[in-house]
Amino acid sequence: MSPLLCTYSYFAATSIAAMASAPLLLCVLLISTYCLVALGGRHERGFVVVPTSSSSVTEQAACSFVSQVASDPNRASVPLAHRHGPCAPASSSSSGGAKPSLAERLRHDRARRRHILSKATGRTTVTLSDSDAAGVSIPTSLGAAVDSLQYVVTLGFGTPAVEQTVLIDTGSDLSWVQCAPCNSTSCYPQKDPLFDPTASSSYAPVPCDTGACRDLADGGYGAGCTNSTTAKSLCQYGIQYGNLDTTVGVYSTETLTLKPGVAIKNFSFGCGLSQQGKFDRFDGLLGLGGAPESLVSQTAATYGGAFSYCLPPGNGTTGFLALGAPGSNNTAGFVFTPLHSSPEGPTFYVVTLTSISVAGKELDIPPAAFRQGMIIDSGTVVTGLPETAYSALRKAFRSAMSAYPLLPPNEDQDLDTCYNFTGLSNVTVPTVSLTFDGGATIDLDVPNGILLEDCLAFVGDGSDDTGIIGNVNQRTFEVLYDSGRGRVGFRPGAC
Questions:
Q1: Is 377 one of the annotated active-site residues of the chain?
Q2: What family name appears in the similarity comment (predicted)?
Q3: Which of 16, 151, 328, 407 could potentially form a cystine with 53 if both were Cys, beta carbons 3.0 to 4.6 Å apart?
C-alpha cells in the first residue's frame, strides 16, 4: 500500500517575484489541508505546495491594521508596512520612479551586513572619502548605522503633531527626520512636508555644553558643535551609513506622538539639516537598537525596554510595531530564547542558533559553527549564515528542490540558489526551521519567509563568525525583544 502524502496547499498566496520589486496585491491567505496518495512509495513530509511567481492570480490588498496587541492597555502599537508596498503611506511607497531592482537592493543589503558585522565584532569600520563627503564634515568614528531599510511606520512629531513616515531599524539607535530649512542641495526630496521645528511649541535644540551632548559623542553619534565660538552653539549629530550615505543636523528634543493620546515628551532625536547619498522618499529613521539614544531606551521607564513588531508576509499587507511586552499571563503562542548583547556595544540584539532543519530533517551542522551568535535585524533583507551552516543548508535545499531548474549564479547579487519556475503554476517547497538556544523552534513562513524572488533568502558570510537573521525569515512572526527579561520571543501568524 502506498503511504499517504500530506501537504498544505496555499491558495491565492503571494507572487514571490513581486515581493521585493513591485507592489504586491495580497492580504488574504487561504489555507487548506489535504492528503494525496503518494505514487513514488516515499513518505513525503515537510513540503508545502505554493503558487509560483508566474501565477496569474489577481489579488486584492487589504491594508487595515489588525493586531492582537492593539487592545493591550500596557502597550502602544502603530501600523507597519513594507516601504514599497501599497499599504505604505504615499510618502514612502511613491518614489516618483522605478522601484530598486533586486540586484540593487542586495548590493545595499551586502553593505549593511558588512557594516553591522564590522561594528558588532570590532573590525574596521567604513570611512568617508573626499568625493563621498560632498562637503559634509563627519568624524570617521561615526560609522554607527547602516543602509536604508524595508519597513515604515507613521508617527507624529511636534506640537501640533505633524505626521512623519520613518523607517524602523533595530541596527541603529539615534532617530532623525529631515527638518526645514532644507533645500534641494542639502536634503533629498521627500513627498511629505519637511518637519519645521519653528512651528512646534515643544521643540528644543540641545545646547552644546551639556551632558546630553557629551553623552551623544560618547555613543558615537556626536559631530561637535554648530559654532564653537559662541555661547549659544548647539549640539550637532552625525551618522554615516554602511553605503556612505550621511545625515548631519542638530541634536534636539521634541514630543513624539505614537497614536492619539499616547505621546513621549522630550524625545531626543536628530533634526537633519544635511543629508547626502541615495535616500528614498521617506522622512527619516526610527532607531530601535539597545543603546541610550534609541526610542526603546528612552521609553524604558514606561515600557520596560521591551518592544515587538510583525513584518507582513508581502508588500500588500500591514503589520505592527508595539512598545512594551505582554503580561506574563499573556504570552500564549510565543517561544523564547535568551537574549545576549554584542560585546562591542548595546545596539545589537544577539541570539544563539543551535540547528537548522530542512523538510523536517535536522542538518548535520557542528555546534561550533554557531558559537559567535546571530544578530536579529529588521533592516537586513537576507539572512547571512556562518559558512559551514550555509553550505549544509544550501545542499539540503537544492536536493529537496532537485525537480526544478537551478539558475546559474548572478554576479550582481549574492543569492546563489535561484530557480526557473517558468510555465509552472505551483511548486513544492521544503519547510525550513530554525532552532535556538533553549529549544525555541520557528517554522519559517512558506514561501514568504524562505524565498525572495524565487531564490533561497540566505547567503554565506565567508566564515564561521557572527551571522545576521534578516527580515525575510522574520515575516509573519511577532518578534518580541524583551530586554528586561533577557529574552527574545517569536509568535507565528501574528500578521
A1: yes
A2: Belongs to the peptidase A1 family.
A3: 16
